[in-house]
Amino acid sequence: MFHHADWRDRLWSEIDRPWDLIVIGGGITGAGILREAARAGLRALLVEQNDFASGTSSWSTKLVHGGLRYLANGEWRLTRESLHERQALLDAAPGLVEPMDFLMPVYAGHRPGRLVTRLGLAVYDLMAGRWHAHYRGRDAVINELPYLATDGLRGAFVYPDARTDDVRLVLRVIGEALADGGKALHYARVDALCRDGQGQVCGVSLHDRITDRRTDVMATAVINATGPWSDRLRRQLDGAPRLRPLRGSHLVFRRTDWPLERAVMLFHPDDGRPMFAVPWCGATLVGTTDLDHADFPDTPPRMTDAEGDYIMAAVDRYVPGLGLARDRAVSSFSGVRPVVAGAADNPGEASRDSAIWAEQGLVNVTGGKLTTYRVTAREVLATLTDRLPALAGLSADAAILSGGGDRLAGRYGPHAAGVRALEEPATVGDTPFTWAELRWALRHEGVEHLDDLLLRRTRLGLLLSSGGEAVLPAVETLCRGELGWDRARWDREVAAYRETWQRYHSLARRD
Ligand SMILES: Cc1cc2nc3c(=O)[nH]c(=O)nc-3n(C[C@H](O)[C@H](O)[C@H](O)COP(=O)(O)OP(=O)(O)OC[C@H]3O[C@@H](n4cnc5c(N)ncnc54)[C@H](O)[C@@H]3O)c2cc1C
Questions:
Q1: Looking at the structure, do residues 148 and 259 belong to the same domain, yes or no?
Q2: Which ranges in 203-304 belong to alpha helices (H)?
Q3: Ligand 1 pocket, residue 58 CB under 6 Å
Q4: Ligand 1 mean position to 337 CA, how many Å?
Q5: Distance from Cα 222 to the centre of ligand 1, integer Å
Q6: Contact 273/386 with Cβ under 8 angstroms?
Q7: Mean pLDDT along residues 143-153
Q8: Is-contact 334 251, C-beta < 8 A?
Q9: Does residue 477 sit in the same domain as residue 487?
Q10: Residues 6 or more apart from 6 whose CB is under 8 A from it?
């Protein structure tokens, strides 16, 4: 992505020239907008206050899904859109977005009933344009998952969806935007919005947190794609809060502790909420919760003890045969959904649809999904065709991502050959990540801090015991060699990483 050592300086050397578009926020929403804007030939800049995808876009359940649950809520358009985008991503990015069967065990007293579920899945299939969902009998299910609770087990529905690595999806989308002439700067925070004589937003006050440079950057249009932070930015315009931040947490188990070939959907025994166990990056993640997290962003999200216990109550009920306990998990993670406040009391019923609105020239977008990022991006840009006529020519059929195939091709697209050429195919521990991927990230992917490398460019910090303590000496050698960090810098990076890991990803009881 950033193939020149001096890319940040180069970008700064042209930052003062006015831009067509500034996108604030480097999660999937901002990335998707930058990608489409660059495709339209706009001079577009994305700015992200921390690392790319360090907000909600790294802490999802990793599903590229049609949204079976939206169907249950009667959100037909959202389901149709999600199914369409799921297929488009599956076609465009094999190796990154992977088809995956989901098993939904059915127990006596199952709610919704078997007939309703069968009907729902039939509609899901019909809308997706292919017949796939089917029912498996009790014996077949026990054969596949011998550790599943058998008490009251009737059988299971099987239906198709897909999974991805959310961070890598964001990085791929940003990478394609850069290849098309878009620009992106991470660790660059918008401290304030600039306004013209009529009070309309016409730029941003930017603070580069790596070089400590500050400047005002002007643009024809500015988009607020800051996800759960968007109300915070809008405060400067006196915008009344629109968000209902909802926290969701997950636990990650070793695959050897919880072997899983396909995802499993479980209904929580206490409240019937759907939860997922998903095989992911050689591990099994299970979640999620859905709770109000009103003091965001002042209090960043982390899994509470009550949430850990809630997740484990479902695991204990349905997976008693593996002897799993909370402290056998390798890590936990939490994110905040940027859901738009609506009438629903119950967090689970709040719509996951995106919302787009303009406010004193600032275009706000929030609430979208990973899955539907492209639709959201096009809808946002469609509101700007008056100000930026080049956007009128955007085609809905343009390619999403170029290149894909096996895991490396999917994750790195056109750069997969470069990763392979490093000839370090050994994997780090029992994860699928290779040492070549770490080196590639350090050389070409804008790693500024150790957690960029271990929590996002790779997900080793979530997959290895104690955040990867055992591999840190080898990582130190790599970082010092590739980034020129001296001993003191490494010590600072490690200390900061350990603190982040302990606070946000460890299993320590805290409440
Ligand atoms: C628990 C959970 C599970 C989910 N599961 C799924 C799933 O399986 N499938 C799916 O499709 N979706 C899922 N989602 C939804 C999806 O993850 C989010 O909707 C999506 O990631 C939101 O992306 P975003 O870009 O809008 O926000 P974010 O990813 O949060 O990005 C916003 C960015 O703006 C930056 N920012 C904020 N303020 C500033 C500023 N002043 N200057 C510069 N930058 C700033 C932040 O640092 C942040 O990186 C899930 C969400 C959660 C929480």
A1: yes
A2: 230-234
A3: no
A4: 7
A5: 18
A6: no
A7: 94
A8: no
A9: yes
A10: none
Indicate left, alpha or beta for 502 from its phi (over 0: left) and psi (-120 to 50: alpha).
Answer: alpha
Answer yes or no: is 405 within a domain. Answer: no
Q: Return the HEC string of 54-89.
A: CCHHHCCCCEECCCHHHHHCCCHHHHHHHHHHHHHH
CA of 487 to the centre of ligand 1 (A): 34
Residue 510 lies in a domain: no
Query: Does 61 contact ligand 1 (Cβ within 6 A)?
Result: yes
Single-letter code of the amino acid located at 24: I
Cα–Cα separations (whole angstroms), residue 459 to 58, 90, 331, 501? 10, 22, 11, 12
Ligand 1 centre to CA of 228 (Å) is 7
294 and 438, same domain (yes or no): no
What is the number of the ligand 1 atom nearest to the C-alpha of 191? 41
Binding site membership of 66 for ligand 1 (Cβ less than 6 Å)? no
Specify whether 98 is located in the same domain as 86: yes
Together in a domain, 429 and 365 = no
Number of domains in the chain: 3
Same domain, 101 and 142: yes
Q: What domain range includes position 39?
A: 7-57+167-242+351-393
Amino acid at 64: V
Would residue 410 count as lying in a domain? no
C-alpha 58 – ligand 1 centre gap (Å): 7
Same domain, 87 and 202: no
Residue 238 reports pLDDT greater than 90: no
pLDDT digits (tens, 9 = 90+) for 346-387: 777 666 678 999 999 999 999 878 999 999 999 999 999 999
